[in-house]
Amino acid sequence: MFNHRSILITGGTGSFGKAFVRETLRRYQPQRLVIFSRDEQKQFEMAKELPPERHPCLRYFIGDVRDAERLRRAMDGIEYVVHAAAMKHVPIAEYNPFECIRTNIGGAENVINAAIDKGVKRVIALSTDKAANPINLYGATKLASDKCFVAANHLAGGSGTRFSVVRYGNVMGSRGSVIEHFERLVNEGATELPITDAKMTRFWITLKKGVDFVLERLEEMSGGEIFVPKIPTMSIKDLAQAIGPHCTTRDIGFRPGEKLHEVLIPFDESRNTLEFSKHYTVFPSFHWWKVEDHLFDGGEEGAKVGQNFQYRSNSNAWKLSADELRRLLEEDRSDARTEAA
Asked: How many domains does the chain have?
């Protein structure tokens, strides 16, 4: 799909962005792959790992999604956009609300307008389980962002630009994740790991599966969908014991904006949700959008979920075991080492 095409990824030097770039280079021969981010040091380090001399299609483009003019310049000749830039840390967003709003909502508006103005074909935005029934500012800004990207399909008019959203849970290999935190404590000799609450559960996905899912959805999207992969759940206590089997755990209480459990598809979205073998698709509730017109995805027929359906981390049937977690982490890291070599 991306052979001889031009692609831009915002937040391109983040954990997802780097994995997306590596996988795209492995699978395709793009004409241009633009890495758009605001941190020059991260771009410098990434360019050492993936030098333009070895990958002539790469463009390292300094810019901030808050800067509408810079985005428009970056999107000259771009056909596909993956929007991964965001402020993502829940407590930091609670303490710095206006910065989070400017990046996550204002940035979404700028990406949408630039994509329409520059005639981009498809845009897919990364979201989070925290956007479903949000209680923290980060989740609320991502919900607003999701709504903007879905509505952008009619804002685009006859331009042909189409927008969709991918929504999933915690990413195992991402910087700043609780897995990284636990591993650092274990490596430093800790015998006790701090957890929020023993009953807390979260959805988990590897970086590779996240990238694979985004690439698949870019191929199959028609615009307006929120795509949700089927992924496993694990309690924070089981996670801590999997990372540090010899460690005890200690409840430290909830940080500002934290939930006990997360939701990927709330009850109120079930009426517009179709289930496929490996994912769910939530369709917009606009009167001109008929779920029945989109029953097929990649040749597979979807089925409407039940009226009382919810996709919650505490009731998810797919539970991740300690051995499965370790295997997935090793697979993800092995892939990253191979691609970096």
From this structure: 1
Q: Which residues contact 247 (CB under 8 A, 6 or more apart)?
A: 186, 190, 191, 192, 193, 240, 241
| Residues 60 and 13: beta-carbon distance below 8 Å | no
Instruction: Read off the tokens for 318.
Output: 């797919």
Annotation says 147 is catalytic:
no
Distance (Å, whole) CA 304 – CA 333: 36
Torsion of CA 282, 215, 314, 311, to 10 degrees: 10
Integer CA distances (angstroms), 201 to 116, 225, 235, in order: 39, 26, 4
Q: Which of 18, 88, 118, 130 is catalytic?
A: 130
158 lies in some domain: yes
Task: Report the SS3 class of residue 331.
Answer: helix
Q: Is residue 145 part of a domain?
A: yes
Residue 295 gets the label, from left (phi > 0), alpha (psi -120 to 50) or beta, of alpha
Q: Is residue 236 part of a domain?
A: no
| Cβ–Cβ < 8 Å for 104, 148 | no
Structural domain range at position 53: 6-170+206-230+264-313
The CATH number for 271's domain is 3.40.50.720
How far is 24 from 29, CA to CA, in rounded Å? 8
- Cα 178 to Cα 183: distance, rounded to the nearest angstrom: 8
Shortest CA distance to 11 belongs to which of 204, 177, 174?
A: 174
- Give pLDDT tens digits along the chain (341 positions): 899 999 999 999 999 999 999 999 999 999 999 999 999 999 999 999 999 999 999 999 999 999 999 999 999 999 999 999 999 999 999 999 999 999 999 999 999 999 999 999 999 999 999 999 999 999 999 999 999 999 999 999 888 999 999 999 999 867 778 998 999 999 999 999 999 999 999 999 999 999 999 999 999 999 999 999 999 999 999 999 999 999 999 999 998 889 999 999 999 999 999 999 999 999 998 877 877 778 888 889 999 999 889 999 999 999 999 899 888 888 777 666 555 55
Q: Is residue 22 part of a domain?
A: yes
